[in-house]
Amino acid sequence: MENYLNGRDTISTKDAIVYLTLHGEVKPMIECKKVTIKISKNKEDIQTLGSHWKRKKVTSVEGTGTLGGYLVNSNWLKYALPYLTGGQDLYFDMSLSIEDKTTANGRQTVHIGYVNLDDIPVADFEADDGVMEYESDFTFESLDLVESFN
């Protein structure tokens, strides 16, 4: 058994793919360049007589993340318009898979549900040599580990 990490078993982020499910339609996020997802725990303080230690009790969790990419179409604005005009807000699901075939780790697939963007990308103009990009924080309310690494 090896006592160190084999460099080839680290996972290249270039091998990740992201899909959104909106209104029952699965859409590949070909313009995506960044996704971060985390679960934060809400902890309440528990203090007792006879101890100086402040203990913690987890009472809830919150799913948050960031989605970023190149702004290449008007879809996000189109999805936001119904809410802006008094209709329903946009909730969608997101699936993420990563498999770096150079590693022995296999594939991991995660599904998050009830995703809701904190802000809607509309435009990103600068007078440099850049391209239009967006980055939006989001919340989500369910998570499933569909497939885990080996």
Draw up the topology in text.
Blueprint: E1 16-22, E2 25-28, E3 32-46, E4 55-70, H1 75-84, E5 92-99, E6 107-117, E7 133-140, E8 142-147
Antiparallel strand pairs: 1-2, 1-5, 3-4, 4-7, 5-6, 6-7, 6-8
CATH class wording: Mainly Beta
* Count of individual beta strands: 8
Query: How far apart lie the N and C ends?
Result: 16 Å
Can you tell me the CATH superfamily? Phage tail tube protein
The coarse overall form would be globular
Provide the structure class: mainly beta
Q: Which architecture per CATH?
A: Roll
Beta-strand level of the residues, as a percent range?
over 45%
Contiguous helical run count: 1
Low-confidence segments = none
Sheet bearing the most strands, described? 8 strands, antiparallel
CATH topology: Pnp Oxidase, Chain A
Question: Helical residue percent?
Answer: under 10%
Keywords:
mainly beta; 150 residues; Pnp Oxidase, Chain A; eight-stranded antiparallel sheet; 50% strand
Kindly describe this structure.
This protein has 150 residues and is mainly beta. It has one domain (13-147): Phage tail tube protein (Pnp Oxidase, Chain A, Roll), CATH 2.30.110. It is built from one helix and eight strands. It has one helix spanning 75-84, and strands at 16-22, 25-28, 32-46, 55-70, 92-99, 107-117, 133-140, 142-147. Strands 1, 2, 3, 4, 5, 6, 7 and 8 form an eight-stranded antiparallel beta sheet that branches.
